[in-house]
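for the recovery benchmark. C-alpha cells below, seq after
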C-alpha cells in the first residue's frame, strides 16, 4: 500500500483523537448506539461482523477505522454505513480502480476542475472524506432516504431523479441490496 509521509503523521493524530470520537453521538445513531466502546475500536473485536478484515493488517485497519470515525462525525453518518459501502465498493483495498475509472476505498470517480485528482484519490483519508461528503449530500438530496442515496451513489443523482426512485438497473439494485445487507450484518453484531 502506498502511504505518503504526511499520512503517517495523520494516522498517529487520528489514533490520538480516536477516544474522543467514540463519544461523539450523531443524530443518525440512536442514543443506545451512540457510544462505541474503546475496546471495540482499538481491537479486531469491533471488526467481527466484517470477517474480510480479520486477515488484514491491524494498523491499516485501525487507520481506516479512525478515518471512518472522523468522516462519520464530520458528515453525521453512521460509521457502520461507511464500512458497509467500503466493503462493497472496494473490499477495503485502497488501491483498487474500477473499469469505469472509480478509485480507492469508496470508488470515487475523478470529477472535473476543483475536485481531487485521480492519484490523490488513492489517499485513504481523502477518499473516505470525499466519499462521505458525497454520501451526505445525496442523503440530504433525498431527505434521508438511504436506498435512494445509495442508488444515486452507484448510478448517479440524475439517474435516480429521472426514474423518480430506484432505477431499473440490475447492477444498481444489487449494489443497494449488498450495502444494506452489509449494514445489517454490522448492526446485528452491534446488538449481540
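predicted aa per position
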Amino acid at each position: 500500500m502506498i502511504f505518503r509521509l504526511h499520512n503517517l503523521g495523520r494516522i498517529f493524530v487520528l489514533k490520538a483523537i480516536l477516544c474522543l470520537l467514540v463519544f461523539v453521538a450523531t443524530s443518525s445513531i440512536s442514543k443506545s448506539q451512540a457510544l462505541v466502546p474503546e475496546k471495540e475500536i482499538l481491537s479486531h473485536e469491533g471488526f467481527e461482523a466484517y470477517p474480510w478484515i480479520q486477515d488484514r493488517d491491524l494498523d491499516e485497519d485501525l487507520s481506516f477505522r479512525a478515518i471512518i470515525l472522523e468522516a462519520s462525525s464530520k458528515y453525521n453518518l453512521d460509521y457502520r454505513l461507511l464500512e458497509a459501502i467500503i466493503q462493497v465498493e472496494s473490499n477495503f483495498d485502497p488501491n483498487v480502480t474500477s473499469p469505469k475509472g472509480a478509485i480507492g476505498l469508496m470508488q470515487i470517480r475523478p470529477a472535473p476542475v476543483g475536485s481531487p485528482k485521480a492519484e490523490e484519490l488513492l489517499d485513504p483519508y481523502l477518499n473516505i472524506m470525499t466519499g462521505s461528503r458525497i454520501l451526505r449530500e445525496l442523503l440530504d438530496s433525498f431527505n434521508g432516504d438511504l436506498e435512494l442515496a445509495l442508488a444515486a451513489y452507484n448510478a448517479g443523482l440524475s439517474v435516480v431523479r429521472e426514474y423518480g426512485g430506484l432505477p431499473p438497473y440490475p447492477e444498481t439494485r444489487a449494489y443497494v441490496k449488498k450495502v444494506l445487507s452489509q449494514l445489517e450484518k454490522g448492526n446485528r453484531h452491534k446488538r449481540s
